């Protein structure tokens, strides 16, 4: 059974390397699409397209209300009024 643990650790290391490679290729493709002045490129293996993620900066009033809500949530967690749901998952930390 320990073989599965080792396999998991090895896969985790491989995924890390692949994710780094993917980030570098992403930069190249991003630049290429910009140079083509294209929002999308379709190919035999998939479609590459730009997506837009919006973020907002809120007014002081909304930020204040958000802080109040956070405190209310913390209070309910502390006094037991908030219903807690826990789930179990696996975490792996590689040897450095």
Short description, anyone?
By secondary structure, this protein is mainly α. Helices cover 57% and strands 8% of the residues.
Order of strands across the biggest sheet?
Answer: 1-2
How does the overall form come out from the CA principal axes? flat
Binned, the helix content reads: 55-70%
How far is the N terminus from the C terminus? 23 Å
Averaging pLDDT over every residue, what do you get? 96
Structural class: mainly alpha
SSE topology string: HEEH
Would you kindly provide a written description of the structure presented here, covering whatever features stand out?
The chain is mainly alpha-helical and 96 residues long. It has one domain. 57% of the residues lie in helices and 8% in strands. It is built from two helices and two strands, in the order αββα. Strands 1-2 form a two-stranded antiparallel ribbon. The radius of gyration is 23 Å and the shape is flat. The chain starts with a helix and ends in a 17-residue tail after the last helix. The mean pLDDT is 96.
């Amino acid at each position: 059974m320990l073989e599965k643990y080792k396999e998991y650790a090895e896969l985790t290391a491989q995924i890390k390397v692949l994710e780094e490679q993917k980030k570098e290729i992403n930069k190249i493709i991003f630049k290429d699409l910009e140079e083509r002045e294209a929002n999308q490129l379709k190919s035999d293996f998939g479609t590459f397209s730009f997506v837009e993620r919006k973020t907002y900066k809120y007014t002081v009033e909304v930020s204040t209300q958000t802080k109040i809500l956070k405190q209310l949530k913390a209070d309910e967690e502390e006094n037991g009024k908030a219903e807690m749901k826990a789930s179990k998952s696996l975490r792996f930390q590689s040897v450095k």
